[in-house]
Specification:
- The structure is a single chain.
- By secondary structure, this protein is of the alpha/beta class.
- It is built from eleven helices and nine strands.
- Strands 3-5-6-7-8-9 form a six-stranded parallel β-sheet. It has a three-stranded parallel β-sheet with strand order 1-2-4, with helices on both faces.
- Helix 8 packs antiparallel against helix 11 and helix 9 packs across helix 10.
- The N and C termini lie far apart (about 35 Å).
- The chain binds fe (ii) ion.
- Fe (ii) ion binds next to loops.
- Keywords: Hydrolase, Protein phosphatase.
- Its EC number is 3.1.3.48.
- It is an enzyme of class 3 (hydrolase).
């Protein structure tokens, strides 16, 4: 199992507070059956701006003390300056490859987002949208996500969303995304070793229950994201009528 989203590196963002917590989160990931965990601290311009030097020295320190593979990455917050930051090598993708985890404000999608995502694509980046099921605008406008998938962008859903960790709406939306083949990778989004752990197994099992063929697709393709290889995304399923009405309930434009 691959956990594509975690805040296991201590002292960088609102994730692990110290090295002991980092190691306890990594131990928990191991118990969950995680073989690879991406260490993706927030990179939020003006708030959290980890340097490559600090990041590299801390990830090496954790690698030396861990029994699972720790893969580099960042959770980059949407900003007009992202293309420039990438050119300056101040932000980087998963395993220093083309796939980059990108986060949006919880309640909005800035109007320049499509331009920034497109510009990043021109620079060779393949955007992965972090936990869209937790964004208020996206959960009410799944058509935006359909357009992004058409562009070749990937969606990362939090495993916890599928089992209700964030409440009813993210759970319902993640179920719809699962049914519609609109989940490409999973992450724990673990922030600590108590309330938001590096758990992924129950969410992964839930996904398999909801859509076994998507689960198999993820098993067959997720490693390619780590390796920076091209993947063909599964076709988006249309919803049956009954599911559509659930979706309609959330659609309040
Ligand atoms: Fe996160």
């Amino acid at each position: 199992m691959i956990d594509f989203h975690s805040h296991i590196i201590y002292g960088i963002d609102d994730g692990a507070k110290d090295i002991d917590m980092s190691l306890s989160m990594i131990e928990n990931a191991k118990e969950e059956g995680t073989e690879y965990i991406c260490a993706t601290p927030h990179f939020i311009l003006g708030n959290y701006e980890v340097s490559l030097e600090e990041y590299s020295s801390k990830i090496e320190e954790l690698r030396a003390k861990s029994e699972i593979n720790i893969v580099s990455g960042l959770e980059v917050y949407m900003d007009l300056k992202l293309p420039q930051l990438f050119k300056e090598k101040k932000i980087w993708g998963i395993n220093n490859g083309p796939y980059m985890l990108i986060e949006f404000p919880m309640r909005d999608i800035p109007r320049y987002s499509n331009d920034v995502l497109y510009e990043l694509s021109i620079l060779g980046i393949k955007p992965i949208i972090a936990h869209p099921e937790r964004n208020l605008k996206l959960m009410n406008n799944i058509d935006i996500l359909e357009d992004w998938i058409e562009e070749g962008y990937l969606l990362q859903v939090n495993a916890g969303s599928l089992v209700g960790q964030y409440g009813k709406e993210p759970k319902d939306i993640s179920e719809i995304l699962a049914k519609r083949n609109m989940i490409h990778i999973l992450g724990s989004d673990g922030h600590n070793d108590s309330r938001r752990k590096t758990n992924i197994k129950s969410g992964r099992d839930k996904l398999e229950e909801i859509n076994p063929s998507l689960s198999t697709w993820i098993d067959n393709n997720q490693k390619k994201v780590l390796l920076g290889e091209y993947i063909e995304l599964p076709e988006i399923n249309e919803l049956k009528k009954s599911s559509k009405s659930i979706f309609g309930f959330f659609k309040r434009k």
